Amino acid sequence: MDFEIPYTDEQEEFRKEVGTWLEQNGPKMEIPEELMMGPEHIAEFNAWRERLGKKGWLAPTWPKELGGGGLTPAHAVVIREEVSRRGFPQAGDLGLSLGAPAMMIHGTDEQKQRFIPPILKGEVGTWQVFTEPEAGSDLASLRTRGVRDGDVYVVNGSKQFVGSPRKPDFLYTLVNTNPDAPRHENISAFLIPAKLAGITIAPMDLVGGGGKQFVFFDNVRVPTDCLIGQEGKGWNIANTTLELEHGGSGSPGGEVSGPRGSMLRQVIEYLKTA
């Protein structure tokens, strides 16, 4: 049985372009695993993300007008392979793989133009902030509250087991905006600027480490234009996210490894000699 992976002539020609660009624009230092990153690594990682984003290769298959590359999945495969071949980090985050797709499906046209390009260009970092002390997989029981007050929602509550050493610009989160509504109709989704007054991010002291964080909301005044979709429709938006997260790729932006990822290559090599 032939397990060789074929590539088109166009892919191979594009591979040369990618290789040349990466040699000139790759990370200026070796970047360790995320939990081992120091401040200098984080700074270079963010710069690397922005270089990829400016080129359109952080989200190769997204439309150019939104900050993507406008390329085909076949091109995205080559980009990922060449990045991996050099040991460079892929540089995606949950804003790219989960937040932007949710916004693309459920957000307003104005929100798409305002939020998605900075994410795809690597100019901002986003955390997914769903889990609470008393609400893990049961998202319908969220306790974090958002109360409408004119042009803002006043948000109070906490989230946990989230984040990374790289601090966020936005928090993609779910909030209970109507505790009297039926389950699955009481939740709203927000993309909240992480520097708003009243937001505190603190490390969790876990026996196994892991670099996870608490996020506390103390009377945080969130503008209503940070609401994704409609109030009370957060359950549908969460399902969009969870389908992406659990369905395999979690990355409609094209930065996925796909069937040509390194793990499949290892399996193929093993089967050739088995």
Characterization of this structure:
The longest helix has 17 residues, at 9-25. This protein has a four-stranded mixed sheet with strand order 1-4-5-8. It folds into two domains: 9-92 and 251-273, Butyryl-Coa Dehydrogenase, subunit A, domain 1 (Orthogonal Bundle), CATH 1.10.540; 125-246, Butyryl-CoA Dehydrogenase, subunit A, domain 2. Mean pLDDT is 86; it is low at 248-265. The relative contact order is 0.15. A hairpin with a 2-residue loop joins strand 2 and strand 3 (152-162). The chain is globular, with a radius of gyration of 20 Å. It is of the alpha+beta class and 274 residues long. Helix 1 (9-25) packs across helix 3 (73-85), helix 4 (94-106) packs antiparallel against helix 5 (109-120) and helix 4 (94-106) packs across helix 6 (234-246). The protein is 35% helix and 19% strand.
Number of strands: 8
CATH-derived topology of the largest domain: Butyryl-CoA Dehydrogenase, subunit A, domain 2
Which blocks of ≥5 consecutive residues have pLDDT under 50?
248-265
The Rg value, from CA coordinates, equals 20 Å
Helix content: 25-40%
| Ends distance | 12 Å
Name the beta content range: 15-25%
Highest CATH level, the class of the largest domain? Mainly Beta
CATH architecture of the largest domain: Beta Barrel
Shape: globular
In spatial order, strands of the major sheet run 1-4-5-8
